[in-house]
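[audit] Reproducing an earlier prediction to check determinism. Same input, same settings, fresh worker. If the tokens differ from the archived copy the diff job will pick it up downstream; this log only records the rerun itself.
[audit] input (418 residues):
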Amino acid sequence: MKKKLVSLLAVMAMTVSAIVGCGSSKGETAKSNETKAAAESEGESAAAATDLKAGFIFLHDENSTYDLNFLNGAKAACEKLGVECVIKTNIPEGQECYEAACELADAGCDFIFADSFGHEDYMIEAAKEYPEVQFSHATGTKAHTENLENFHNAFAAIYDGRYLAGIVAGMKLNEMIDNGDITAEQAKIGYVGAYTYAEVISGYTSFFLGARSVCPTATMEVTFTGSWYDETAEKEGANKLIQNGCVLISQHADSMGAPTACETAGVPNVSYNGSTVSACPNTFLVSSRINWEPYFEYALNCVAAGTPIDTDWCGSLENGAVELTDLGSAVAEGTQEAIDKAKEELIAGTIHTFDISTFTVDGKALESYEADVDTDADYTPDHEVVSDGYFHESGSEFRSAPYFDVQIDGITLLDTKF
């Protein structure tokens, strides 16, 4: 890692920022919380690490809601800290990622970040070639097993945000039932997913459980596009779900295809990674998203101070890394109050998104489950993740990337070829 000269204030800013995510162990998290409390009591604020240069690799560009969310976080963090920011967009999940990372390293970047799951192996390859540069990757699973001092993973407990967004959806379903627009048995949600990865399964399941927590008759149908960004396929998927009788649509795909299909059809929609209200003023309800600015601040301040970045960082509702957008005008009365109550309970740990008493699998309670947490080549299950009455999803104890891949009752998959 390159050593940088920074002011005492910048070092203190690093310790403040370090608390925004959970470290690679509970002990590190507790230590970070103590540091946070001490720093906050002294009223210290972040300072710029002006001699740093950061490079960012994005799968798509600002037309993708997913990538735009990262872009905004990167720009905001770099501007706040006075860090030079170099951005590469439309970098595929292939050798192009390795080449982009090497170009950024050769250009003098001290910190290089990539935002898509398929970038990971190429970032690891570049990290081995440039040991003096810090590399970080979103949604990845290999940092805690690669044991490279300069390669890190980061994600957030977005399933809690999706659960809250599901409550918004459930409240809307209840309003539609109360108004006589649908019957309780017609409270069917449609979901446009990209792939049958654990990240997507975790996302649509947590959203569904949030909806069903307030609308117990809710069911869901899920269709997949086989792409993170395909506006035509996502629009077609949403229209197929609407034709199948789905009265509300959500998504884990990155274009405006599904939201605009909903606006045309007059169907309420919940987006992902940012508000779509400007394009869908009549149907937009809410969006959950990961706020990446805290992580970028934290990691850049670590580089500035010459201190280690957490191997596997995870953000949460409590530290502001998991957020909901402002509510759209189409939400049901009482929605904000329902969100506030559930958010408080999630943070306090009095409720859990994957509470095993709230769902069944093939008609039975999920009393035990070994998940593939360490992600070996054969994806062998290696950790018991059900205890204390709930499934311990990513960010709780083991790693930041999602590993919930259970198919629960009430959700029908229309296409699983991806």
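[audit] rerun output stored. Observation attached for the diff report: The domain at 8-155+291-315 is CATH 3.40.50.2300 (Rossmann fold).
[audit] end
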